[in-house]
């Protein structure tokens, strides 16, 4: 298979790489860049474990052909914290016990992050809606919704 | 909640993406392993041909059953099937290749010829006289050792003394664990030739057994290292053993590390499911509601292979009559083989199914007697000093009634029930409220020894490592264990590192099942803490020139109770102890006393302690579409003393969601034995939008046998939910005797 050049900004870092044409954005992140925070749970756009922010929008990176994102700006869970300084969403997930196995957590955080960027003061229903594409089998979502609400408040919204 | 209760040992790593799951590992030189599955319901293998597949560039190795170095099966499950395949997930060949693409291309080039054999497609078919025999050693299609009877009193007399006898049949479906992380392992050899398996496994010691079986290696040359596990709920057991065994033989055959990750489809096709049950209950009661007799046949579908039903059905026979006092009982539980994917452990084991049937029955009986559901239950609840159907006198506090009254109160049940009864039956949206009460035997009970171990080591700088023989698969067990240590030593949890299981480091401590992680798993930890504490206090007493009895430990210090200013930091004491030659590393083992069980009658001592739970559900049904929604769940659990409030709350909410899924949406679909709902587009689990308002309370209780007073919780949280939802639906006019209560079934009822 032919290789093509892919240019991306990932977590603020410019990336330029020759990749196989058929790679998904998720493959590039996990296999080429070693950013294994984004997970694969279904491969068909149903579980949200692979959610990243692409050009400001939450997307299922298992459904994005990497080359179609050429020139794009990608944010992954690895880019949320600034060094030791956690993002308020991450803090709030810790404080609200919003995770158990943690497999859905990166995707959940990125969906929530995208939501808060667009809507700094979301209501409970809006939060549920925003994360309804992210499956979690462990938590029953209650503490996750709480966490997002609290993060919004901490950020001065809500 | 105390400050410590939102703290979790692995949370920071999990919110930053650092936590490493098995599929995140990459070993230089690794090959990608794949499984070629039969895709057949029941067939004879006529021929398998890998000639073309071997020619694909990048393919390094293809193995058939004949190439396996040792055993082709583990327990009853085949690593590679030989001669015959019994369900679609059966593997017939393994591929190792340089890349995923090459491995997949090889699978596409494999050629097989099968000759279809008559299949068994349901538990009813399995029981037919003329049913095909699936395993020659079990000509009646019954799963080995899966029959567990209970005989108590005199069933004939019991029915004779009854004024009313009611017979009902209930059924449940195959439920998928749907952990969001599909199974994955990476296998490599160590420099001494032994194997190292990094995997997403619930029971690393069982995974080790599987690898030993597949490779012929002794157990001491197989090291299984658990990675962060992305949920399990009983599921990462058989399939992970098979996966690890297969990856190991590929690793040995190629001399290269091998990584194998299941796709969601493979995970659904091969991993075990919640056993579907068919319940036939016959209950007799006096006119006033006193239960006199219960006769029941519980049949569960074990699928193509099965090892779990023998254990699961034992638990089933103990819980088959619910949390009630019944003098005359005859119960038979057994499992059958079919050509479907195998049944296994899933959160609650057999209980969510049984409670659905048995608590539906209680509501139906109440209605037949003209009694309120609560009145019937209060008359029959087990109480302290009562004898269970399995002949055990309950000496510990029995809180069935207490949790029920509290839950009903919290749910405003009486008022709402009346309001629903007055609702206009012709409106499009109708509602109902219902509840279910249950108990759960804590830990393994008489099923198997509830023994387990732990290692606690305090380092010279005062930091601490805790290693349990039981696993954290997301439920937060490492945190609960660290919490116990922190509390007992009076140190901050930040000092403690709690490690996942590595089979080369901790004693084999049995399986992490039956909600025994804290209940039993906490015990060797507390024993170890007690020994370490003794040493530290002894050393501190010498330094402070007092007796150890005068000292206390809190706030990361050891101090004199009389004069707290006379103190030493925890780190100082640890260092002094180490440098004066004391051992600060302690291995402890908890061995419970033996429990008595008589198999023929099902009488004995089943469990030392029981968790009591009540769940109240409110539902709303759209009569036009048949869509049912759970609008509110209230649950109250007597789980003894809760160790970590944050983790415990997470268990309750998670259990509620799983219960809602089982009640309303989850059931695997098959077409002639082949699963058609193999991914989340067709197998739906609850999303954030499906979650009802959730309220819960723990009812603290003492006097039980658990570590630090903690009883089992993880499974108890899910168990009564489907039953409560079913009873709420019945209150809304929809008594469904088969789960899940899909809109199709409700519509059918609606249209008569
Ligand atoms: S892996 Fe992308 S949505 Fe599930
Ligand atoms: S925390 Fe396990 S899937 Fe969400």
Automatic annotation (TrEMBL), chain A:
Pathway linked to the protein: Alkaloid degradation; nicotine degradation
- Origin superkingdom: Bacteria
Q: Which InterPro entries match?
A: 2Fe-2S-bd (IPR002888), 2Fe-2S-bd_dom_sf (IPR036884), 2Fe-2S_ferredoxin-like_sf (IPR036010), 2Fe-2S_ferredoxin-type (IPR001041), 2Fe2S_fd_BS (IPR006058), Beta-grasp_dom_sf (IPR012675), Diverse_Oxidoreductases (IPR051452)
Q: Ranges for the 2Fe-2S ferredoxin-type domain?
A: 4-80
Keywords from the UniProt entry? 2Fe-2S, Iron, Iron-sulfur, Metal-binding, Oxidoreductase
Q: Which Gene3D superfamilies match?
A: 3.10.20.30, [2Fe-2S]-binding domain
Molecular functions per Gene Ontology: 2 iron, 2 sulfur cluster binding; metal ion binding; oxidoreductase activity
- EC assignment: 1.-.-.-
Q: What is the name of this protein?
A: 2Fe-2S ferredoxin-type iron-sulfur binding domain protein
User: Which species does this protein come from?
Assistant: Acididesulfobacillus acetoxydans
Automatic annotation (TrEMBL), chain B:
The molecular function GO annotations come to: iron ion binding; oxidoreductase activity
Checking InterPro entries in the record gives:
Ald_Oxase/Xan_DH_a/b, Ald_Oxase/Xan_DH_a/b_sf, Ald_Oxase/xanthine_DH-like, AldOxase/xan_DH_MoCoBD1, AldOxase/xan_DH_MoCoBD2, AldOxase/xan_DH_Mopterin-bd_sf
| Matching Pfam families | Ald_Xan_dh_C, MoCoBD_1, MoCoBD_2
UniProt keyword annotation of Oxidoreductase present? yes
Q: Which SMART domains match?
A: Ald_Xan_dh_C (SM01008)
Q: Which UniProt keywords apply?
A: Oxidoreductase
| PANTHER family registered for this protein in UniProt | XANTHINE DEHYDROGENASE, XANTHINE DEHYDROGENASE SUBUNIT D-RELATED
Under which name does UniProt file this protein?
Answer: Aldehyde oxidase and xanthine dehydrogenase, a/b hammerhead domain protein
Organism of origin is Acididesulfobacillus acetoxydans
